[in-house]
Amino acid sequence: MDGGQPGPVEGTPAQPLVEDPAPSPSHGEPAGPVEPDLRVDPEPPGEPDDQPQSQPEPPPPAQPGPSGSSVLRADASTKAFVRPPGPRRAKFDEAEEGLPPVAEPSPAGVPRGTRAVASLPAPAAPRVFVVANQKGGVGKTTTSVNLAAALALGGLSVLVIDLDPQGNASTALGVEHSPGTPGTYEVLIGGSAIAEHVVPSPEAPGLQVLPASIDLAAAEIELVSVVARENRLLRALRTYLAGHPTDYVFIDCPPSLGLLTLNALVAANEILIPIQCEYYALEGVSQLMRTINLVTGELNQDLRLTTVVLTMFDARTRLAAQVAQEVRTHFAAETLPSVIPRSVRISEAPSYGQTVLTYHPDSAGAVSYLKAAQEIALRGAAPTTQENR
Ligand SMILES: Nc1ncnc2c1ncn2[C@@H]1O[C@H](COP(=O)(O)OP(=O)(O)OP(=O)(O)O)[C@@H](O)[C@H]1O
Ligand SMILES: [Mg+2]
């Protein structure tokens, strides 16, 4: 991916494009025939720091028919709309209209509105992050892929290990992960070397991915009967790091505390917990902390919780600010100063097989992840090195 914005969908001048009508409350297709509404809905302004007007909406990722724009027009003969392929705008996009930018200072060295990323300092030894939170949908994958891409764009060598059978990190980093694609499963169960199955991500030079396919779902059960079942990833990663100089490793975990996550906790030396700035944010974190304490006591004494990232921060709600404050009280030293805002661009990016850094480099979401990556890089190296383990 070259990081450029996709061009506009071409329309025939005589037949103006018609936007999709407002979704029905049930989110399904209308039950009966629908009168075609030929009005062109005004484009919502989007995020406060979105691209200027000259920046067109990118086309949907799915291939349109040979006529290209035909799917965006009302079909007068059937009196029904054909929905355009690709992602729809999320509800909260409309609510973002006219809002002031997230009250975060511009990141030092990463000026807004440019794609240039300041080069980042390399750690003294590889830093291996496990990105964990057994609560689902809190931004583990989004944080893993965007931080990894930001660090790689900063000139560092980064490996992302997709440890979730959903394969979301593989999707967001634009790498193949259809069933049968070799990756994490082969490493954990088959004993393959990581180097055999890593693939470069088109998102950034120096960014490698060990993909996960749905095959990995079986690993959770198969690992039960495997010798040294909680050390499989650690061993493979040690071998990889010995032969492949790497600055950062991010292990994207599934939303559970099973054997997959346990392998990650044993293989890593730092824990990064994304916490969504919503109600129940801290629910489950105490259980995660108990698991971490068990692991550090029995299996990996080098493991440290070093980083908490506040995600999906909605500056309009008092609740988000309260949650952020509560998290900062609990994890004063670990919580990054920067906050990841709730952003349509962030949520849209994976459906194009991209991180927000290449999808909308100037958006608030991209800038916040660049800034978070910079903060992580500047915090220095991990307390211990892989070689010492
Ligand atoms: N800052 C954000 N603004 C808006 N949407 C976001 C943001 N971060 C994540 N999302 C969206 O929220 C959803 C959940 O995010 P993500 O997949 O990263 O969470 P997760 O913790 O990895 O989920 P799971 O537990 O299923 O692995 C995704 O649809 C993602 O695109
Ligand atoms: Mg995930």
From TrEMBL:
SUPFAM superfamilies per UniProt: P-loop containing nucleoside triphosphate hydrolases
UniProt cross-references to Pfam families, sorted A to Z: AAA_31
Disordered: annotated segments: 1-113
Chain ranges of the AAA domain: 127-304
Biased composition (Pro residues): 55-64
Segment forming the signal sequence: none
Transmembrane regions: none
Function: May play a role in septum formation.
Family: Belongs to the ParA family.
Name the record gives this protein: Chromosome segregation ATPase
